[in-house]
Design a protein that fits this description.
Layout: H1 9-32, E1 36-38, E2 48-49, H2 72-86, H3 92-120, H4 133-153, H5 158-180
Helix pairs in contact: 1-2, 1-3, 1-4, 2-3, 3-4
């Protein structure tokens, strides 16, 4: 017999899956900083990576793009790398959840500000015509991190306890039906 305590198989599996999803989400978020965030258009010119967009744009659509200050690419890259580091930190489940939400919010704020610019200037096109793959990747990465953290936060035996309660209820209903006949 082994002297190490046994752990339920479900707890290590959900932790492994959760950690892997957080790592994949961090990699996607970090890679999205190099992808195109702004599509090539006649109105806005050539495609833009997140490194040509000021980070302040996600909270103020009046910022000149490209402009000065820290770039959105640096912010997204740091968030992605923090997700990678968080996946191996002691509080990785909560950190993955919080950072995943921050990554999602960053992507949605960018899209919201592009929408504001498109509608304020009456460009007559859809927001999708002005964004490229970068915001999609960053939101997908954040969603994977959040899902991974939630999977890892579910206590061991949670799903089996739900199944056993349902089975007990079904057996009770069958006994009631058999007693009525």
């Amino acid at each position: 017999m082994s002297s190490t305590p046994s752990t339920p198989a479900g707890s290590t599996r959900s932790a492994s899956v959760g950690r892997a999803l957080i790592v994949i989400g961090g990699v996607l978020a970090a890679l999205s900083s190099w992808a195109n965030w702004g599509a090539k258009t006649r109105e806005l010119g050539p495609a833009r990576t997140a490194y040509t967009i000021p980070a302040k744009f996600v909270i103020d659509s009046g910022v000149k793009v490209p402009g000065g200050g820290i770039s959105l690419g640096i912010v997204v890259l740091v968030l992605g790398l923090l997700l990678l580091v968080a996946a191996f930190a002691p509080w990785w489940k909560v950190a993955g959840l919080v950072l995943g939400v921050a990554v999602i919010v960053t992507g949605f704020l960018y899209v919201y500000q592009v929408r504001t610019v498109v509608h304020d200037h009456n460009l007559g096109k859809s927001v999708r015509d002005f964004i490229s793959i970068g915001p999609y990747l960053v939101v997908l990465g954040g969603l994977l991190a959040v899902v991974g953290a939630v999977i890892a936060l579910i206590p061991p035996g949670f799903w089996s306890s739900l199944t056993s309660e349902e089975e007990e209820e079904e057996e009770g209903e069958r006994a009631d039906e058999a007693g009525r006949e």
